[in-house]
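Entry 14. Ran structure prediction on the chain below.
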Amino acid sequence: MSSEVWLVVGLGNPGPEYAGHRHNVGYMVNDVLAERMGSGFRAHKTGRADVVEGRLGTPGNPGPRVVLVRPKSYMNTTGGPVQAVAKFYGVEPDHVIAVHDELDIAFGTLRLKKGGGDNGHNGLRSMRSSLGTGDFYRVRAGIGRPPGRQDVADFVLSNYSTVERKELPIQLVEAADAVESLITEGLEKAQSRFNS
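Output, structure tokens:
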């Protein structure tokens, strides 16, 4: 068993009014992972995030230690809580995975990568600023572009459509599977399985 720790940061905004928004898909994926780990989120000692600690892997073959992180701040100030939790557990950016919504990928599609720009995503920008690098992993859950002339901010801060809500559970499970694959098998194998 490895002693290394992975931080899986589900990006989103706290509070029930944001719970079903496209921008909160990271929170939703971490909820699926928490269920698999058999635990609920609890306040972290830093006071800046809710966490679940445990291992992801098959029964009898536990994988590396994983800390699921749900920052208690709004998206544009996510970096501070992430940095605080990473420092607490002694985790370097190369063991941080951000799970987030991605406008430039069609709904129902996933992409995994390491590093890259923030593409206008305030959560990623804040993480990059606080961690001092963008060289962390990303599991990008596609939400597609807004229809017609709808403002991007209004689109990401709105609920999934009725049709999307029927498909959303599948996307959340696939994204959770992608996180597990990334941690246990590495980026290359995870990309070949999940980058569609």
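The beta strands are 5-10, 42-43, 49-58, 61-71, 96-102, 110-114, 137-142. Will compare against last week's run tomorrow.
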